[in-house]
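Sample entry follows:

_____
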Amino acid sequence: MYIIAIAWLYVVTLMAATEKTITAGLLTFIFYGLLPCALFLWVLGVKHRRHIQHKKSLLEDDVSNPDGTHTNRDE
């Protein structure tokens, strides 16, 4: 996941370096590089964070009730 972001930022840095003015280069880097990478990493990070949270809740269930029986009465 990170290798894609690094490669994209490298390409965008080269694109920004070829712009005629510093302002155009900065805007190119921000709008073609930083914003899309931030969105990309955020979207893929949500899935990863959800997976970690699910694993953590399963572990907490196992620790709080190791024999697998329910302590609450079924109603």
About this structure: The longest helix spans residues 22-64. The radius of gyration is 23 Å. The chain has a mean pLDDT of 81. The chain has one domain: 2-64.
